[in-house]
Fold each of these.
Amino acid sequence: MAPSSSTFLNGVPELLVLRLLRDREMYGYELVQAIREASGDQLTFAEGVIYPLLHQLERDGALATRRQTINGRSRVYYSVTPAGNQRFDGLSAHWRSLTATIATVLEAPRHA
Amino acid sequence: MAPSSSTFLNGVPELLVLRLLRDREMYGYELVQAIREASGDQLTFAEGVIYPLLHQLERDGALATRRQTINGRSRVYYSVTPAGNQRFDGLSAHWRSLTATIATVLEAPRHA
DNA sequence: TGACATACCTATCGTCGCAAGGCATAGGCC
DNA sequence: GGCCTATGCCTTGCGACGATAGGTATGTCA
């Protein structure tokens, strides 16, 4: 059983979405590519991951939406609410703490 | 919806189990506590996580087992096979790569 | 016309950590 | 003896979530 492509990615889409939307509002389709580009093509989360996540975060009050039609195509822009900012702060603190702890274990000398 | 306690932990039990067993063979019950101690009580994976994982890794040929009875209690000691070492190398490289990428995105300046 | 990018959405599946149990022996305490 | 805790193994069922694979519609360009 080879490790799946999603190993270690639990929670990462939400972390990145909140991080990127904190800089500027974006719409879903744009976010999918923004994540890919921001990660140097190392991370790709398809629309089937991003759209449900956006809906969920909106329901939770972490994101606010604004609808706009451009060139005959309708876009849904998402921006981070104060609650969303708090959520991101908590998530990123958690992420930093965990990765630091794991790094310590990985690098620990024998019998530590 | 508050983030669950398992956020960011996908694949981590396997990574840590292989890392700790690389130092010395251990049995399941011992591993559960070793992970907790090695992480300074920051990470706890209960037996319901560790035992199935050990069985899986053994089936995959990543771990070898040795049975021993001590003080009337039977223990199953696990050690890492060459295939398990390879697997760990791949996993930890993947982990380092991903965390580095994510850290970059998190710390990126606006409009990066 | 046909192909492709844009832009939204959903349903279903598989994996995996988690909670909650069960079973058995050893040892300490009252 | 009766009871609780620690030790040591195990399994079942649930829920969350990333992955896959679709579906719909408009604009652009060859």
Note: Chain B touches chain A at residues 1, 3, 6-12, 14-16, 19-20, 23-24, 35, 38-40, 42-43, 56, 60, 87, 90-92, 94-95, 97-99, 101-106, 108, 110-112 (CB under 8 Å).
Amino acid sequence: MAIVRKVKPVERFSVTRERILDTAIGLFSTKGYSGATTREIAQQAGVAEVTLFRHFTSKEKLLEAVISHYSAIPGLKSFLPKALEMPYEEALVGMADMFLDTLVQIKDWIRVMHAEVQRSPDKFIAIYHSFLDELLEIFASYFRELQKRGVLRNFDPDLGARVFHSMFYCFFNMEELLGRKKYRPTDRTKAVREFVSLFIRGTLATQG
Amino acid sequence: MAIVRKVKPVERFSVTRERILDTAIGLFSTKGYSGATTREIAQQAGVAEVTLFRHFTSKEKLLEAVISHYSAIPGLKSFLPKALEMPYEEALVGMADMFLDTLVQIKDWIRVMHAEVQRSPDKFIAIYHSFLDELLEIFASYFRELQKRGVLRNFDPDLGARVFHSMFYCFFNMEELLGRKKYRPTDRTKAVREFVSLFIRGTLATQG
DNA sequence: TATCAATGTAAGTAAGTACTTACACATTAA
DNA sequence: TTAATGTGTAAGTACTTACTTACATTGATA
């Protein structure tokens, strides 16, 4: 609290705001919307509870602010042109790694969205799935281009994108969100390589 | 309430218990543990709130009862021997369909577990992942057998099982849990066929 | 007929919740 | 010096929550 006062007053407002948002997303993601209390958020953020309400007026609006503040678009899009100039397998490994890193970064946001979509679907389904569409389109456009070049066979690129997405999202979901890495962790590098290999070559023996 | 009284008194106790459990899992899954209230659960179940506490003593114990009551093991295991006598592609489609049906059946249980693993990991991580291990082992043992027979090439069967699992779990997760089917539904039959095809043949063009 | 088990009704407790109001304090800009 | 801004402290409101207690009611059974 005293800490905040030492900051330039112009920045003070936004610093306080960010501190509250940072604490809020953490508590919302672990305790759920109802389970997280405004008192605890304020305490952990090191501000008075009334300050929280002065910034966000209500708990519900704080949640909305949290969701829109952390829905950063992944830097995956910028990787696409590079990927097109790499060998297929190498590109897939790179995309997978980048994708997993992104997911870990927005872990809490995903957790919150997952819970909120159940609680008030009308409010959050569109937000979440437009985010997802953007992501899937990155993968799909990559596959479409490689199909044009004749590198890939003629599968549905949108469903292909979903398979690629599934493998790594599910890995992230298990290890990070469902705590498998605390239970029986899986070697990420090994998994990525094997997943990519399966995605490229499939499972069948007698080919080529 | 009057309805319950017409039931044989021997059965009455378990009927009431089940009604409460049925309502509880629905409310826990949509509103979260803190968001669901014992009053609402009792009202929706058509019993007095005090009856709920006479059956389960506390809200926390009700949650535990809910989780253990609905963690039914899927009938997938019994499909395995049949699958081994079917053509590979047909078997995979069958397993996928069965898996998706199972997931839809235990949808609420999965939702609750997903939330509770965040809230109190120590209590629920082991439960969830031992359930998952059992599931993955079914897939893995199938792949292992087909590798022995020389039908499949030599990939890691455990990671192969995770890829197979991922494709369909993620489909379920998106469509059912995250409400994509209300936003832009995907044709399940088509998706299953394409996913299986990709899993068998991979994405690469120049093979065979 | 009397007993017992499962339920209901009703009232209440103690604690917590989101949110408000009123006032004081410090820092900066006019 | 004064005014404005962002914050803290403190008290309080109206409501909800999980859970309890005491007593009445029902239906089957012994």
Note: Residues 111 and 177 of chain B are 7 Å apart (CA to CA).
